[in-house]
Amino acid sequence: MGIESGITPAMDTLLDVNDLHVAYGASEVLHGINLRIAQGEILVLMGRNGMGKSTLMKSLIGNMGIRSGTIRLEGTELAALAAYDRVKAGLAYVPQGRMVFPAMTVKENIETGLFVRGKSSIPDKLYTLFPVLKEMGTRRGGNLSGGQQQQLAIARALATEPKLLLLDEPTEGIQPSIIREMARTLRRIRDESGLGIMVSEQVLSFALDVADRIIVIEGGHIVHETTRADADIDQLTRFLSV
Ligand SMILES: Nc1ncnc2c1ncn2[C@@H]1O[C@H](COP(=O)(O)OP(=O)(O)OP(=O)(O)O)[C@@H](O)[C@H]1O
């Protein structure tokens, strides 16, 4: 049995996922996920390899169909919408492995996000957050370091002006010093723009740096939930160890 993942009712709900079931063919891997994210909240989804983090992320953005359940963003049902329309509705997604367009320049990569809102110029605030992207504007995305590509992927997602930013294992393949900086940057983005963020993650130190609340997925169920303030590090470590 999964547990109900709740936030206090006084907080405005941004994302509300109810009884979400997702399958690869006949094989169901998410067995009734319930979760809510408040406006301006940073939620970290933890779990070992193969527990269903990426599947949940993909089904939220619409890269995978769902078997049943609802996905509401500020009350709007997204489950029947194509990925592009979910982005228009306010979801943005940074996939595992970042997936920047390697042959396009840094500037062109960011511009692909602007298109969704019918805009053509990159807002200065993106370069304020990520100055290196301005310096490297004419470089090809594929020539950037892992940490720089992660910044580029986040900037491209923010260019769509999301209400909720989804990041799938953003620390994968990134140096520890850059991981700390990434946590600070994500909190800064939330503080400045008030958007919600959901991050899937296996690195506990990063999760503790960035989260307001942590949930744990195991075998396609949410099995644990805690605020950052109440997090029991030993217990979380046990969930993450094989
Ligand atoms: N394309 C696929 N076809 C069939 N089964 C899949 C497919 N992709 C993932 N699965 C299965 O779904 C389950 C959840 O996988 P998922 O990738 O969501 O886990 P994860 O928690 O994101 O792990 P990781 O950290 O390795 O990305 C696993 O049992 C996996 O084997």
UniProtKB/TrEMBL annotation:
One Pfam family here: ABC_tran
GO molecular function, one term: ATP binding
Keywords: Amino-acid transport, ATP-binding, Nucleotide-binding, Transport
Entry-linked CDD domains: ABC_TM1139_LivF_branched
GO terms (BP aspect): L-amino acid transport
Residues covered by the ABC transporter domain: 15-242
NCBIfam families from the UniProt entry: urea_trans_UrtE
Family: Belongs to the ABC transporter superfamily.
Name of the molecule in the record: ABC transporter ATP-binding protein
Provenance organism: Acetobacter aceti NBRC 14818
